[in-house]
């Protein structure tokens, strides 16, 4: 046994013992290693240690479906590749291609075949081609599988090994404590070769939950994870991972075994030759979300899920009070960890992550505004039989139409302010393609599908989109141009490294302010964002600009005197006031 193998086995042994105490530990470790390093592949000599070298200020991501662009002639993944190279190369370094597998519902998240690319999109070669120029993130949809999949068909027929792949429960079980993200019934009655059964369905009856109490399920997903990596994927998103382990009589969310499985996957990533980043998708209250960092031994990155609704509230209300209060209490990510910051995504704007952060009346005001801007509200079941708002369904651009007072003329400025905050915060910024393109609400999509989330999942006719982007006066061209400019400025600044120092500034409640400092302490950036429709100003003394330095607003190019007059802000104006431009001499 080599030293590498011995170290790896020691790390796996404790985790296997916690997850599967009744299994032959040594045999299961052999099978785990074989699943992730098949056919003679070998792990690194030493585990990759936690560090801040997995990412830099140049890193940002675009989130997109594989068929966000269609033309009726070319493969959608080819069109996506063309769009990325034509409009985002040199600006955005990574791309999250939402589930690109065959599926039956939920726009890809009810997978029928984990090993194939959806032929309506393209094939693995198309994924590899994109991965040759961009850092690709893929979805490991590991909580559930489509009810039309071969796996579930085999389960119904009693065929091994899938006859033990799905979680069964009884209506007589104590299911009241189970945390639900939906209002549909938790259990689905099915007829199997072994008689009537009830299977667990966290999200929908077409998405049947897998049973990770069976180690064969884990082993299969480790093989699938290896397939993704071999095809160029470098960021693996663990979809709905919080619900992985279930036990009747418990909330069946964030179970100890779930955290142990994430830790096991992290060990494999740390020993992988490829630099794999593990990202957990846990749309839950903030303190629960942060638990997936573990002790620097679980996810490399977590979604900053509280950020979208708090930024939304700030810009609709004109005050950063709650955003500031939350950010001031947020811990910096531990060494080797990072936040993924975003506003818009393929899902709606989740409201669970602001439980305890926003008063109910403020949440009610948000819901009222979103409905007035053409949006929808999705509900979830709560313990005790009630319902509460789970997410807001609207495109982010249309969510910026106005404020609690109604629509106004500041939509573009308000939108750009929201995205500039995302760029300035500690972490890695991610931008949904429909935010980059100022896509309006797709009401026709909702009417056609009956699904509220379709409002934010428009499919662009690619030639029509290119024509809009060629017209500098179109909203799409204007927003993309401004977004690219700001992302381009950001990526040159060492002070915007995802792990660079950050302090929240105490300013006028209409200003959301941060101080960022590069890891080598050479560059400081005071990132100030007016979240209101009012003109205001701030004294240079209030942000402690150091004398003797030449301060410049990176966004406007204006010189700022540390002892001069007050610094003015137009409605929704943002300023990144720095002692140096990271692109210039002396950049760290």
UniProtKB/TrEMBL annotation:
Pfam family membership, one: Alpha-amylase
Gene3D superfamilies membership: Glycosidases, Golgi alpha-mannosidase II, Oligo-1,6-glucosidase, Domain 2
Keyword Transferase (UniProt): yes
Entry annotated with the keyword Transferase: yes
Entry-linked InterPro entries: GGa_phosphorylase, GH, GH13_cat_dom, Glyco_hydro_b, O16G_dom_2, Sucrose_GGa_phosphorylase-rel
Keywords: Glycosyltransferase, Transferase
Domain (Glycosyl hydrolase family 13 catalytic) ranges: 63-490
Protein name: Alpha-amylase
Source organism of this protein record: Rhodovulum viride
Lineage of the organism: Bacteria, Pseudomonadati, Pseudomonadota, Alphaproteobacteria, Rhodobacterales
């Amino acid at each position: 046994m080599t030293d590498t193998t011995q170290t790896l086995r020691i790390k796996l042994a404790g985790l296997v013992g916690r997850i599967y105490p009744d299994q032959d530990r040594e045999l299961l470790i052999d099978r785990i290693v074989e699943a992730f390093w098949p056919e003679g592949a070998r792990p690194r000599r030493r585990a990759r240690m936690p560090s801040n070298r997995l990412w830099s200020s140049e890193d940002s991501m675009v989130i997109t479906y594989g068929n966000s662009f269609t033309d009726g002639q070319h493969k959608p993944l080819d069109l996506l590749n063309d769009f990325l190279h034509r409009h985002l190369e040199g600006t955005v370094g990574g791309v999250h291609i939402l589930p690109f597998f065959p599926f039956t519902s939920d726009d890809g998240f009810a997978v029928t075949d984990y090993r194939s690319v959806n032929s309506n999109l393209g094939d693995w070669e198309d994924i590899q081609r994109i991965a040759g120029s961009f850092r690709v993130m893929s979805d490991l949809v590991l909580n559930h599988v489509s009810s039309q999949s071969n796996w579930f068909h085999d389960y119904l027929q009693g065929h091994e090994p899938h006859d033990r792949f799905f979680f069964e429960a009884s209506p007589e079980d104590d299911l009241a404590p189970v945390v639900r993200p939906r209002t549909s019934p938790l259990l689905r009655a099915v007829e199997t070769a072994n008689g009537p059964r009830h299977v667990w369905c966290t999200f929908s009856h077409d998405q049947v939950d897998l049973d990770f109490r069976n180690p064969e399920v884990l082993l299969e997903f480790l093989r699938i994870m290896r397939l993704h990596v071999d095809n160029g994927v470098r960021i693996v998103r663990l979809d709905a991972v919080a619900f992985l382990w279930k036990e009747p009589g418990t909330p069946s969310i964030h179970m100890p075994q779930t955290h142990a499985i994430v830790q096991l996957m992290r060990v494999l990533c740390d020993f992988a030759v490829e630099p794999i980043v593990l990202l957990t998708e846990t749309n839950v209250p903030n303190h629960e979300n942060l638990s997936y960092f573990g002790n620097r031994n679980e996810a490399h990155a977590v979604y900053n899920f509280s950020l979208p609704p708090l930024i939304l509230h700030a810009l609709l209300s004109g005050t950063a009070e709650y955003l500031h209060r939350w950010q001031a209490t947020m811990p910096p990510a531990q060494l080797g960890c990072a936040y993924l910051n975003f506003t818009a995504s393929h899902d709606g704007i989740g409201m669970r992550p602001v439980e305890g952060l926003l008063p109910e009346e403020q949440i009610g005001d948000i819901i009222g505004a979103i409905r007035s801007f053409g949006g929808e509200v999705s509900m979830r079941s709560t313990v005790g039989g009630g319902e509460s708002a789970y997410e807001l369904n609207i495109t982010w651009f249309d969510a910026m139409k106005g404020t609690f007072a109604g629509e106004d003329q500041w939509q573009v400025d308000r939108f750009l302010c929201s995205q500039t905050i995302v760029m300035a915060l500690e972490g890695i910024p991610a931008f949904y393609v429909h935010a980059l393109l100022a896509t309006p609400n797709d009401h026709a999509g909702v009417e056609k599908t009956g699904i509220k989330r379709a409002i934010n999942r428009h499919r662009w006719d690619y030639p029509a989109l290119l024509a809009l982007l060629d017209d500098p006066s179109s909203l799409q061209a204007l927003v993309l141009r401004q977004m690219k400019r700001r992302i381009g400025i950001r990526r040159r600044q060492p002070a915007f490294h995802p792990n660079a120092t950050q302090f929240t500034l105490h300013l006028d409640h209409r200003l959301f302010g941060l101080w960022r400092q590069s890891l080598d302490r050479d560059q400081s950036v005071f990132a100030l964002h007016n979240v209101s429709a009012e003109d205001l100003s701030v004294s240079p003394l209030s942000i402690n600009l150091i004398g003797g330095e030449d301060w410049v607003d990176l966004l406007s190019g204006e010189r700022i005197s540390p002892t001069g007059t007050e610094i003015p802000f137009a409605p929704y104006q943002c300023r990144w006031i720095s002692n140096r431009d990271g692109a210039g001499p002396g950049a760290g």
